[in-house]
């Protein structure tokens, strides 16, 4: 092996080692990442029924769920991910059953963007929706962030960073 070739070989070995090092480092970063904070406690049956109702009533024209919403709409409404950690099932049922949801949750949005009343839905559908929404949980460490951005969207104000309300 000539001297120049040896130099190239050493350079290749060094580059390979550096890449292996970067990869190991990145994997250890991923392991420390807390992951996706949202999950559901619903049975498969409830998940299917709930998702079907959300689809039929086009809730995702306005709301994000599992990181997805209708990209053609731009209504500034709260995400439904993790909503079951903030509201319980009976609250959700009352909210969906209210003739005027803005009596329960005041809004600053224009009328066309506001949460519509679903009081006209059959009771079993409102119950299924409430049960499904209540099953949508968020890990504690993420909840503060969700609450903060939600309050910001609803009130237009940034709450204090320290989380005291
Ligand atoms: C026209 C847009 C729109 C549609 C469609 C819509 N929502 Fe909403 N929703 C909102 C807005 C905006 C709010 C926040 C309150 C307000 O401004 O009226 C809200 C609030 C909520 C909340 C309370 C969130 C919280 O912070 O407690 C729940 C739960 C909810 N919606 C569920 C649903 C479900 C389920 C459907 C479908 C059956 C649906 N929404 C359809 C716009 C919409």
Question: Could you characterize the architecture of this molecule?
Answer:
With 165 residues, the chain is mainly α. It has helices at residues 3-32, 44-56, 89-97, 101-104, 123-134, 140-155; strands at residues 38-40, 136-138. It folds into two domains: 1-33; 38-155, Cytochrome Bc1 Complex, Chain D, domain 2 (Orthogonal Bundle), CATH 1.10.760. It contains six helices and two strands. The chain has a two-stranded antiparallel ribbon. Helix 2 packs across helix 5 and helix 3 packs across helix 5 (123-134). Residues 57-59, 61-63, 75, 77-78, 80, 83, 86-87, 92, 95, 101-102, 105, 107, 109, 113-116, 118, 129, 133, 150 line the site of heme C.
Topology of helices and strands:
Elements (H helix, E strand, L loop, with lengths): L2 H30 L5 E3 L3 H13 L32 H9 L3 H4 L18 H12 L1 E3 L1 H16 L10
Helix pairs in contact: 2-5, 3-5
This protein binds heme C.
Tally of helical runs: 6
Q: Give the CATH topology of the largest domain.
A: Cytochrome Bc1 Complex, Chain D, domain 2
SSE succession: HEHHHHEH
Q: Total number of β-strand segments?
A: 2
Q: Briefly, what CATH class of the largest domain?
A: Mainly Alpha
CATH architecture of the largest domain, by name, is Orthogonal Bundle
Describe the global form.
elongated
Determine the strand fraction and express it as a percent band. under 5%
Q: Enumerate the spans where pLDDT stays under 50 for 5 or more consecutive residues.
A: none
The termini sit apart by: 72 Å
Q: What hetero molecules are bound to the protein chains?
A: heme C
> Largest sheet, order of strands side by side?
1-2
């Amino acid at each position: 092996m000539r001297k120049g070739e040896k130099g190239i070989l050493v350079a290749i070995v060094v580059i390979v080692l550096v890449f292996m090092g970067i990869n190991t480092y990145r994997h250890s970063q991923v392991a420390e990442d807390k992951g996706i904070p949202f999950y559901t406690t619903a049975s498969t049956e409830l998940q299917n029924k709930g998702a079907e109702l959300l689809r039929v009533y086009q809730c995702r024209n306005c709301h994000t769920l599992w990181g997805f919403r209708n990209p053609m709409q731009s209504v500034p409404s709260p995400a439904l991910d993790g909503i079951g950690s903030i509201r319980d099932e009976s609250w959700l049922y009352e909210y969906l059953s209210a003739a005027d949801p803005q009596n329960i949750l005041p809004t600053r949005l224009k009328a066309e963007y506001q949460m519509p009343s679903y009081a006209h839905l059959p009771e079993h559908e409102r119950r299924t929706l409430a049960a499904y929404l209540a099953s949508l949980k968020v890990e504690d460490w993420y909840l503060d962030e969700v609450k903060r951005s939600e309050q910001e969207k609803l009130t237009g104000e940034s709450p204090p960073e320290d989380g005291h309300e």
